[in-house]
Amino acid sequence: SLAAVVALYDTVEARSADPAMASFAALLVALWAPSMDLGHRTLGEHFSSVAALFALRALALDDRDGTSRRAPLVGALGALAWVFRYPAGLVTAALLAVYLVRRDRRSFVRAALGALVVALALGALDRVYWGSWWHSLRAYAGYNLLHDRASRHIRDKPHAPEVVLHESVRRGRRNDQLRHVHAARIESAFADG
Q1: In the 3-class helix/strand/coil scheme, how is 47-66 assigned residue by residue?
Q2: Max Cα separation, the chain?
Q3: Using CA atoms, how far apart are residues 190 and 167, in angstroms rounded to an integer?
Q4: In sequence order, what are the residues at sequence separation of 6 or more whose Cβ sits closer than 8 angstroms to the Cβ of residue 166?
Q5: Cα 168 to Cα 117: distance, rounded to the nearest angstrom
Q6: Running DSSP on this structure, what letter comes out for residue 85?
């Protein structure tokens, strides 16, 4: 998405202070095949990556300024990336680990509190909408980690669009094949119903 490309540009420019390097990085991401294929969709991956990039941007600005005043923002944006896409929790952990590696406990605590606020907001939102705290996280973990249903779904339906897309991108095939598969699935759905 455009927001991800802009966030990447800002992050690279803040880290390297080189507009040419930032432009090159943004161009690479913009022309990357999955970005072109999926960039128009409003997937959690895009929101998550934008939040993670803004967290990295805040961290880079603190590095440039020699401060850690944006630590709560780094933690909150990292946790927001996690909320949009649970596997991005690894990014959140890495962002918090930066402060530990620097032996900056005060900033680590401030970043962790920023992340905690977002995690509590997710829990409260789930409580309001689903009736229990962190229902969506528990459902995700149950589906993907405990019961392994996601991999069984892909194994049982090898022609599912997400599998075909992955294979198409991996092998460098054209989008015409994807359109053909999607059109066939839509036709069959209407024929069955």
Answers
A1: HHHHHHHHHHHHHHHHHHHC
A2: 63
A3: 26
A4: none
A5: 40
A6: S
- For residue 193, the model assigns a pLDDT of 46
Residue 83 burial by Cβ neighbours in a 10 Å radius (0-12, 13-18, 19+): buried
9 contacts 15 by C-beta, under 8 angstroms: no
Q: How far apart are CA 158 and CA 20, in angstroms?
A: 42
Interatomic CA distance for residues 5 and 7, integer angstroms: 5
15 vs 132, higher pLDDT: 132
Tokens encoding 36? 């072109």
Return d(Cα 83, Cα 120) in angstroms, integer: 11
Answer for the pair 78, 50: CB distance below 8 angstroms, yes or no.
no
The pTM score is 0.60
Q: Tokens at residue 68, please?
A: 């850690």
For residue 159, what pLDDT is reported?
53
- Cβ atoms within 10 Å, residue 71: 26
Give the pair of three-digit tokens for residue 156.
């049982």
Percent of the chain with pLDDT over 70: 66
Tens of pLDDT, residues 54-90: 898 889 888 877 788 889 999 999 999 999 888 888 9
Residue type, 24: F
- Give the whole-angstrom CA distance, residue 55 versus residue 76: 8
